[in-house]
Specification:
Length: about 450
């Protein structure tokens, strides 16, 4: 029985990476730009029905809802070669946008709640055995952060037993990094609270690290948004291969995430992928063996989050290896990694790398025999949240740029303090997870437990 997943694309960033994701899925399943299964793909043993359903005329339609508060990106998708792929009833855009303000996005979502929920519930009712939702969004702008936060709360309320996974794009946080949103620390902090409290898993996609990988590994001088989005879609499609080409393990979302998230709040995952290819650019990797791929995945320079894995410890690692691979090669590689102590694990949990073998799509030619994706839960991801807190404090102590938030009459300025407290506690929990006595952390007064109820 299929365990269907509905994709929610929120805001400009969510819809742009969503478009690349569906392009990649169509290629891997042999589906044309207008949803028709190609002749050569009619005998595949892949599971298309996890992400697609078939219309009455046999077209494959993505289980996707595309939402934005301004029309530009959705208009672009509707005028692209892939316009006939999506269900035309699943587009939603308003006219005014959220003006890069979390409060405008959140309360805009509240006002449009009925229309948005009608689309999501119609899509959910069309599934036989819905497993959950995957949300694509950015945490820095207005729609992805504000409307995304609102939908996380609503989905938790309406679908309490369904999984919610997000692919959340974090903004460029370097002082020199170009940001087109001065209030991104406010938006990021408010969204982080909701991601901590209302999602089951957050795959962190960090623009700072993605830019670095594009420049250093792929030798792109000035990587553009489309190239960065292609990197993101590669990670997304690789992380869903075990769902679409099922094997013995990790063939549903619960199985995939259960092994990666040991405690409910520590559910922020970092990713690594090797060898990278993008258009005609190929990272300088010639021969690919399983050991080679697994060793490269542990290198900080291949990880798509700007938090060093040399500090802190891994709570869990899942490597999804694609290609023609022998199980004995996996065992030898794991043994070598253990002998060389290439990965440091938490003292209170199992110290092992899990490996899932997955088929490669027979319809997509690749330059390498073996490729790998790492999904990892690492304690040092708190460095990212710490940076958000520091940038927030700089703005907030001057009470800078708060006018747009105050314009929303339902928004309370105290929400910043509540959000800061939740994120600080998340940072404390990740720090505590590095110690052997983590099991007794937070049991002193139960105060932190109250905050998450």
């Amino acid at each position: 029985m299929p365990r269907e997943i509905i994709t929610l694309q929120i805001g400009q960033c969510g819809n742009q990476i969503g478009m690349e994701f569906w392009k990649q899925l169509c290629k891997e399943h042999g589906i044309s730009a207008d949803g028709i299964l190609e002749e050569f793909a009619t005998h595949g043993d892949d599971r298309k029905d996890v992400f697609f359903y078939q219309a009455d005329d046999e077209h494959y339609i993505p289980r996707a809802v595309l939402i934005d508060l301004e029309p530009r990106v959705i208009n672009m998708i509707q005028n692209s070669p892939y316009s006939a792929l999506y269900n035309p009833e699943n587009y939603f855009h308003a006219k005014d946008g959220a003006g890069n303000c979390w409060a405008a996005g959140y309360y805009g979502g509240e006002r449009l709640q009925e229309e948005l929920l009608e689309m999501i519930e119609r899509e959910a009712d069309g599934s036989e055995s819905l497993e959950g939702f995957v949300m694509l969004h950015s945490i820095a702008g207005g729609t992805g952060s504000g409307l995304g936060s609102f939908l996380l709360e609503v989905l938790n309320d309406r679908f309490p037993k369904k999984l919610i996974q997000t692919y959340s794009v974090f903004p460029n946080q370097l002082e020199s990094g170009a940001s087109d949103t001065v209030v991104q620390p406010y938006n990021s902090l408010l969204t982080l609270k909701r991601l901590t409290m209302f999602s089951d898993c957050v795959v962190v996609l960090d623009n700072t690290a993605l830019d670095r990988i594009a420049v250093d590994r792929l030798k792109l001088v000035n990587p553009n948004m489309s190239q960065i989005n292609t990197l993101v879609s590669t990670v997304m499609s690789a992380s869903t291969t075990t769902l679409r080409y099922p094997g013995y393990m990790n063939n549903d979302l619960v199985g995939l995430l259960a092994s990666l998230i040991p405690t409910p709040r520590c559910h922020f995952l970092m990713t690594g992928y090797t060898p990278l290819t993008i258009e005609r650019q190929v990272s300088a990797v010639r021969k690919t063996t399983v050991l080679d791929v697994m060793r490269r995945l542990l290198q900080t320079k291949n990880i798509m989050v700007s938090a060093s894995t040399k500090k802190g410890c891994y709570m869990s690692i899942l490597n999804i290896i694609q290609g023609e691979v022998d199980a004995t090669q996996i065992h030898k590689s794991l043994q070598r990694i253990r002998e060389r102590k290439l990965a440091r694990f938490i003292p209170w949990g199992p110290a092992s790398i899990q490996v899932a073998l997955s088929k490669k799509s027979p319809y997509v030619e690749t330059a390498h025999k073996v490729s790998g994706l790492m999904l990892a839960n690492h304690t040092n991801i708190y460095a990212l949240f710490d940076r958000v807190l520091k940038q927030y404090d700089k703005l907030k102590k001057r009470n800078a740029f708060l006018e747009n938030y105050k314009k929303e009459k339902d928004f309370e300025i105290e929400e910043f303090d509540y959000s800061k407290e939740v994120v600080e506690q998340l940072v404390d929990e990740y720090k505590a997870a590095e110690k052997a006595d983590y099991g007794s952390w937070g049991n002193d007064d139960g105060k932190d437990e109250e905050m998450y109820k």
